[in-house]
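Could you join me in thinking about how sequence relates to backbone shape in a protein? Would you write everything just below, so we can both look at the same thing?
***
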Amino acid sequence: MERQVYLSMGLTDAEFEKIVSILGREPNYTEVGLFAVMWSEHCGYKHSKAQFAKFPKKDTETEENAGLVEIDDLAIVFKVESHNHPSAVEPYHGAATGVGGILRDIFTMGARPVAVLNSLRFGNPQNEHTRYLIKEAVRGMADYGNTVRVPTVGGEIYFEDSYEANPLVNAMAVGVAKKEKLATSKAEGVGLTVLCAGAATGREGIHGATFASVELGAEGKEKPAKAQEGNPEIERRLTEACLEIIDRDLVEAIQDMGAAGFTSSACEMAAKGGVGIDLDLDNVPKKEPDLTPYEIMLSESQERMLIIIKPENLAPVKAIFDKYDLPLEVVGKTTDDGILRVKMAGEVYAEVPAKALASAPIYHPEYKRPAYLDDVKKAISVNEPTDYNEALLKLLAEPNLASKAWIYNQFDDNVRGETLVSSGGDGAVLSLEGSEKKLALSVDCNGRYCYLDPRRGSELAVAEAARNIAVTGAKPLGVTDGLNFGNPEDPESYYTFVESVEGISTACRKLGIPVVSGNVSFYNEAGGKSIYPTPIIGVVGVIEGENHVTIKPEKDNLLLLIGDGAGNSLNASQYLKTFHNKISGEIFAIDWEQEIALQQILVDLIAKGLVKAAHDISDGGLGIALAEMALAAKTGLEVTIDSEEPHVALFGEKPSRAIIAIEKAAYYDAVKGEVEAAGLPVTELGLVSGDTFQVNSQEKTLINVSLDKLQQAHKNLSRIMEG
């Protein structure tokens, strides 16, 4: 085979030689294609898998499409995944199919999808092209999720120059199943029937997995031969059909056809079970009659499943798919030889060991600390603002801090009638059918922190995501991570990845939370410039009792600050970027004793019904957190801070702090006593009262702003997107 052929598919000379050694011969064109997609970074995790051993895992860890945690007899199945490169070039379809793909990972395991959260990163929304990307990506995610009738209940979005040509589109999906009804992708047994179900196969996304494993050009406009396009109506019916055959115990193994299509599904299912699979492509429903075996095997057409059943179950399975008006065809059988064999029109086009395909080489790249990390640690002196009113309003208008209502109002957040708390607060809360317990969900990461210190920034991302659900009253149970980084073959870029993994691992071990699933997206670069290291952290938690809270306080509530404000600074803050155009300073090291105590006391106080509202302090600091609570309550606040540097106290982003609202007369002594007994400082801030947002310090009024002005500033992102 000509060298240029396998190089063009993304294989190296050494990898090609290894394939020849495995097969004992040179592969043909189709076989090279199979190895190329399965040994791509996107499918093979060849530059990242060695690092995963650092993560704390569950004792019952499985190799399925998504991870899970247990709540009584329920399995909570969840995962976050990226669709970055497709969304950069085809934002509507790229984002939509990202949602469709992560939902299939959930219901493939027999879990009914109950929620989606999104995590998005774009460049400056003042740029016309960026607004186009945002509008189309959000529309794509909303159209898909709303049509399949899965509520989008939360998410986050950041705007930074580093994402201008390479946006990030990550989606997290959550599903619920009875533990005894979980399905597997592990094909065990010989002579089983292999079925292809769902949409027809076309030329969409051929070599999409390898496309996701290369750097974009300077403008971020390269595209695969034909982009994937989703059909959410088919996915809705496919969900119901798959859940029904799983519930009726008619399935031996099942897997969706995502990246690498037939190739990944067939070889992974076979490899896990130690069997082979003979595929006959003649029966595959095709969009175009002239598709080659190479194209069929690598196609990433959406809304397709590979299902393995006992032969005697074909009739009832077919009847169920007929009921939902979905194609279902027999395309093969399991064998005892461990070979993935691809046939069409009586000819064998590929014959390769399934385990070899599913076992990409594992690399241990060299890495070194980037020189820029020393430069950006330098702190700068920041003077007080001359006008605190103006400073607050300008911060509230920053796209990173402004209301995201323009985005989340496009999503149906309660289509299933189970959503108790949705977008606009810290974490989402859902009821669980048949249980008094509730499910809490969050997704978070500040890429600016990770740029300044990949390890500490990643620790902060985990702590923040867990704190987001703690302020609802939930105890965190598990983590899923979406690791978005630059080129792993660049030693400095890979350093940020290694450090981030170390940070996530440390944080999860400190908090006692396993990492149960995740995704890695490398090569997020354009024109040689990498994105900020961006490890998206999704957290699932449980609320044991009936009580949960939002960020919305009630009139006359007393506001308390829990946590230590000493040692605060404006390092790495949004304030520093907004007013000085600087991203610099040494970011905070987490005091894990304080962080753990804070999260536990929040859960305990809320469970006892002592807290009316709670809000963690993060981006924008105490001042922005208070303003958001005032906006949520649609009432004024009057608070007092005691600081010689009020701008630092108000806008510094020191972690491990939260604001709670309580009924003053009834609960103050009890709450104060419990917080102090937990070893945490507690400070009385003021009252929910009046019709203005007022902050006093050292007998001076620093801020006195009407609610109307707060609201107008907070709506700035909507004005940008609509203008």
In short: The first helix runs from residue 3 to 8. The radius of gyration is 26 Å. Residues 210-214, 217-224 have pLDDT under 50 and may be disordered.
